[in-house]
Specification:
single chain, 213 residues, alpha+beta, Glutaredoxin, five-stranded mixed β-sheet, 9 helices, globular
Length: 213
């Protein structure tokens, strides 16, 4: 009986371990090490595109997840820019940041592209018209945000980030500039966030152990 109980306990332990996300399958190392904004935080970055249906479905799940983040985790978004056709939505993202419209229009832009099908995500002129209408701002101010001197620098950084991460699609998540996971890798949106949690937990434990030495 004792041998049977020991065998069952070992099997249960193995099943727990086997259920954990696996490197090389559910997540991987980034192609290059990427500097983070704050070394005192564990940084999680979503790489996304407003024209991506999977990103659209991820967004409400992600927003709920972000609200529950512990104090030692910092979250932000970076628009994916693997190709020129994605640039109009990257510009829209940064223009909304500059004009302080992100909270008001982020979800609305996702809806316009994916739910209402009223906006072509590759059409910059249409994006400017949409943002002008939704914000109530003068069109010249919106156009200036899209064409600002700093915009090219931001787009270049976004493109470099995408390449350095090793991402092959969106939505993808970069954890502390060292690991990457995605809905495709992890097997779904919920699974991707669970994988992020798993990596964050392990990185937190590593930091705690390093501090004790």
């Amino acid at each position: 009986m004792k041998k049977l109980l020991s065998a069952l306990m070992l099997l249960a332990s193995f099943n727990v371990l086997a259920a954990d996300p696996q490197i090389g399958k559910d997540f991987d190392k980034t192609l290059q090490a990427i500097p983070t904004d704050n070394p005192n935080k564990i940084e999680v970055i979503e790489v996304f595109w407003y024209g991506c249906t999977h990103c659209y479905h991820m967004d409400p799940i992600l927003n709920a997840w972000v609200k529950k983040l512990p104090a030692d985790v910092a979250f932000k978004r970076i628009p994916g820019l693997p190709q020129p056709a994605w640039a109009p939505m990257a510009k829209a993202f940064y223009a909304m940041e500059d004009l302080k419209l992100s909270d008001k229009l982020h979800e609305a832009l996702f809806n316009a592209v994916n739910k209402e099908k009223s906006l072509n995500p590759t059409d910059e002129a249409a994006a400017i018209v949409w943002m002008t209408k939704k914000s109530g701002l003068d069109k010249s101010k919106v156009e200036a945000a899209f064409q600002s001197f700093s915009m090219n620098n931001k787009l270049n950084q976004a493109a470099q980030f995408f390449r350095a991460s090793g991402a092959t699609g969106v939505p993808s998540f970069i954890i502390n500039g060292q690991f990457i996971t995605s809905s495709t890798m992890a097997g779904g949106n919920d699974q991707a966030l669970k994988t992020v949690d798993y990596i964050v937990t392990n990185m937190r434990a590593d930091k705690t152990n390093a501090a004790k030495k």
